[in-house]
Amino acid sequence: MVFDKILIAYDGSHGAERALMKATELARLCAAQLVVLTVYRHHSMLEASLSMVRGSVEPGGNLDEAMRGTARDAADYAKSHASDAGVARVSAFIKAGQPARTIVAVAEEKGCDLIVVGSRGLGATEGYLLGSVSHKVTGLADCPVMVV
Amino acid sequence: MVFDKILIAYDGSHGAERALMKATELARLCAAQLVVLTVYRHHSMLEASLSMVRGSVEPGGNLDEAMRGTARDAADYAKSHASDAGVARVSAFIKAGQPARTIVAVAEEKGCDLIVVGSRGLGATEGYLLGSVSHKVTGLADCPVMVV
Fold first, then answer.
1. Which DSSP letter does residue A1 get?
2. Within chain B, how many helices (H) and strands (E) appear?
3. What per-residue confidence (pLDDT) applies to B61?
4. Per-residue pLDDT tens over the stretch A28-63
5. Which of A5, A20, B32, B48 has its CA 20 to 30 A from that of B113?
6. Does the distance separating the beta carbons of B139 and A124 come in below 8 Å?
7. Residue A55 class from Cβ within 10 Å (0-12 exposed, 13-18 middle, 19+ buried)?
8. What residues contact A18, with CB distance under 8 A and at least 6 apart?
9. Rounded to whole angstroms, how far apart are CA atoms A93 and B63?
């Protein structure tokens, strides 16, 4: 088949939603396995910036928990969507880390042969100048990357 | 179908070769129309740099002719490959211009719903820093872009 195992990076954004639709259609057409991945930022990654504006350092447990919960909800939603649309084999994972590097690392670890990501939805100039997650993923990945 | 009209940007490079293989497989699977596009640089675009090293200005006709011929050969090769591989509807075009902008403009003009491009084959850092044609295309295109 053209693709056997497709990773869809899903964060609940508008761009990710469109990417999920395409990844689902493609997985069904290819009879491919679909791997949903939602990456979230771990508390310690926000600590540096937050500690600048917070008066005192509070325990990060609750924030971590909330971010993990939101990521879990997003991943579960994407998994349900794909299953309902007729993709037979779907799994969903969440992982804390830097988005682009984490997406590429998980795709390699799980042996995916296509990564599908949403575009930022920015205009051409802004997107190009800022450098989006999708640009970083296409730069880092060894397998084909579809930017939707 | 998932994709109805796929544009493959083919310039004869190693990356474009891999992209051609994937685009061909995908076009066959989707029963999609395949549009081969080879972009080449027009003589006038090289004039500024060449005139710096050339003693005298020579007519650009021959150089244009040679570049157009090479582009034609590349496009024809890609078209034959796709036809031989079982893609029923394939057309091939050559066009002078800036690669990324020309690829995106032709895709829009012809109503393509997927653009397939090769990655530069550079390491992650170099590719990311230099900014490749594939990065520019993903930044400019309104339709999904697959970087192979």
1. -
2. 6, 5
3. 66
4. 999 999 999 999 987 666 565 555 555 555 555 688
5. A5
6. yes
7. exposed
8. A118, A148
9. 54
Tell me the backbone φ, ψ of residue A145, rounded to 5 degrees.
-125, 130
Domain coordinates in residue numbering, chain B: 5-147
Query: pTM of the full predicted structure?
Result: 0.86
CA neighbor of B79 nearest in space, from B138, B34, B117:
B34
pLDDT (average), residues A82-106: 97
- pLDDT number for residue B83: 98
Q: State whether A124 and B135 contact (CB < 8 Å).
A: no
CA distances (Å), origin A6, targets A40, A92, A113, B1? 20, 12, 6, 18
CATH of domain A5-147: 3.40.50.620
Is the distance from CB of A132 to CB of A122 less than 8 angstroms? yes
pLDDT, one tens digit per residue, over B20-31 is: 999 999 999 999
Q: What is the distance between the alpha carbons of residues B91 and B75, in angstroms, rounded to a whole number?
A: 9
How far is B2 from A29, CA to CA, in rounded Å?
Answer: 8
Query: Does the CA dihedral A80-A118-B108-B43 come out positive or negative?
Result: negative
> For chain A, first and last CA: distance in Å?
21
Quick check: A147 and B148 CB within 8 A?
A: no
Residue stretches of chain B with pLDDT short of 70:
43-61, 121-131
Q: Which residues from A are below 8 Å from B25, CB to CB? A: 2
**Min Cα–Cα distance to chain B from A142, Å:** 9
What pLDDT was estimated at residue B37? Answer: 98
